[in-house]
Amino acid sequence: MKCRVCRAPAVVEVRRHNAGFCPGCFVKHCSDQVARAIEQYDMLQPEDRVLVAVSGGKDSLALWDLLLRLGYRADGLYIGLGIGSYSDESGAYARAFAEARQARLVEIDLPADFGYDIPSGSVAARRAPCSACGLSKRHLFNQAARDGGYDAVATGHNLDDEAAVLFGNVLRWDLAYLGRQHPVLPGGGGFARKIKPLIRLGEREMAAYCVLQGIDYIVEECPMAEGNRHLGYKAALNDVEVSSPGSKAAFLFGFLDRVAPLVQGTAEAEREGLHPCPGCGSPTVSEVCAFCKLVERAGGSNAASGSGPG
Amino acid sequence: MKILLRNPRRELDLPGPMVVSALLARLEINRESVLVIVDGTLVTGDARLADDATVEVRPVISGGAA
């Protein structure tokens, strides 16, 4: 197979584009796709400060690398989740990346800063581990971005992630979640602006980008995620994709172009009932926010909330 | 060929030569869900694997429900 751009031998095949790429042209392809997503969805201005949610995995490290390549002022935020050696290893990859690029990495450690970890905290709070993890990360990334004066939080959600989330939301016809599913979530009312610059790139492309750029990342799956629904949705969509390349992109971008505008009002209506949580000041529709409830049930302490370790 | 698989990590020995796409079909692995790396270099589905190649089949699917 030859590179579609320069006809050199290809090392990566992207079947939905019916194309192969050599290393140099593939890296440019990824950079171009991120730049196009940023422009298409008006994610960032050139002078903006961005906080990248870094996990030590391929997507977040590739995202951080791509934003730095494109010239954005991008710092990283890593959250230690207390998942044994998995957290130790993923944190080491995040630190090594930051050090190699002389980039700023902010760190929060759930056990040290909030007195709980995901494995035991999720059991105590009677939540699925991925639910407790996602809730903790969303809250802490939002708070750190607000406290640090960042213009946006960038997450490594890629085309496969978003297609899988959409698949789950459609299976349940969850209009509130469908109304919130967009590459940009506006800031205001206690929320930091959230952007997903990898929306035009697949999971396989992000792993290939890391290999070609020499970015070491944690390859092993999180031990808490095994068997979760989201991974099942991804497998189901890949079964369709393998016989019909481009199906995932058509599913996601068809939704964003033609359906999302019809359901956005649902999410806007939800924001109207928000007020600051008395515990931490974060926006919530409940008496106390979900994060403060999680910390309390997990036996931790939310004393750091409000000032924020970031 | 020495084949390294992950999640869980394990090794297989298979006779070569073989084309990458045929190897993935034999292992019943969806080509959309992995990268194939031979001696540290990415290869495409039509690449021919030599009998003495060391081949990593690296999964690319990740993520919780967050």
Order of H and E elements of chain A = EEHEHEHEHHHEHHEEHHHEEH
Cα(first) to Cα(last) distance of chain B is 38 Å
- How many DSSP E strands of chain B? 7
How many angstroms separate the termini of chain A? 47 Å
Strand content of chain A: 5-15%
Number of helices of chain B: 1
How many E strands of chain A? 10
**Which geometry of chain B do the CA atoms define?**
globular
Reported for the largest beta sheet of chain B, the result is: 5 strands, mixed
Strand numbers in spatial order across the main sheet of chain B: 2-1-7-4-5
Shape of chain A: globular
Biggest protein-protein contact in the assembly: A-B, 45 and 25 residues
Structural class of chain B: mainly beta
Gyration radius of chain A, rounded:
19 Å
The helicity of chain B comes to 10-25%
Summary, kept brief:
By secondary structure, chain A is an alpha/beta fold.
Give a written overview of the molecule.
The complex is a heterodimer of chains A (310) and B (66). With 310 residues, chain A is of the alpha/beta class. Chain A is 51% helix and 12% strand. In chain A, α2 (58-69) crosses α9. The radius of gyration of chain A is 19 Å and the shape is globular. In chain A, 47% of the residues are buried. Chain B is mainly beta. Chain B contains 1 helix and 7 strands. Chain B has one helix spanning 20-27; strands spanning 2-5, 10-13, 18-19, 34-38, 41-43, 48-49, 54-59. In chain B, a hairpin with a 2-residue loop joins β4 (34-38) and β5 (41-43). At the A-B interface, α6, α7, α9 and α10 of A face β4 and β5 of B.
